[in-house]
Predict the structure.
Amino acid sequence: MLTPRREPYRRIILLLVVFLAVSTAWGADFWAKKPYQNWSADETRRMLEESPWATTLTLTALRTGTAGGGVNKGYRPDMETDPTISYNLQFRSAQPIREAQVRTSQLASKYDAMSAEQKAAFDTGAGKFLAATFPDRVVVSVTYHTDVPDYLTLLRSHWGRQSLGTLSTSVFLNAGKERLSLVSYSFKDDTFQFVFPRPRELGPDDKMGVEFVHPNIGLRQQRLLLEFSVKKMLVNGEPAF
């Protein structure tokens, strides 16, 4: 008598399994399935914007994503729109991100249409860029964007005048049980760069978190913590960051 009633549940479980399998395949690790030279423009963008080595956090006057919690009643210069400030963070010392940088350059320069000599010159430069190693440091870049010109000016001013000294008590790399302090800071255009010591011990179940403070510009000042799963950052079985 119970067998017919179990059938719907079996179907539901089967559908869930199929759904998870399809979802996993849809979001499959394209970077592990084909060389970066074959990444599409969309795949390259995904690598740089939302991947195991990069993420983009958007702050608004009404909400702050995963960063701050609660409602932020910041100044709104245009009540017809919802002004935003976004931070795109990338582990620039990670090989997949560096490959995406090269692929971006390939696509922009129409590599496939180049002559053999032009391709050879490009490949030489790309090879040197990708050959760089970071045995003792982790390089993180953060690019900010906003749809409010006044905010952009203020952000440039703020991050442009920061230094290792001013950021030493607010910028950290949380790596498992370690909380690593900033060792170098630089700024150019709309991007600033953090350099941290490389973690000594990091397990596959640990998380990597980059911590810094969004200034009181457009939105209230707030601490941002952008976390990454070490398990998802593996390349050939080893963490890549």
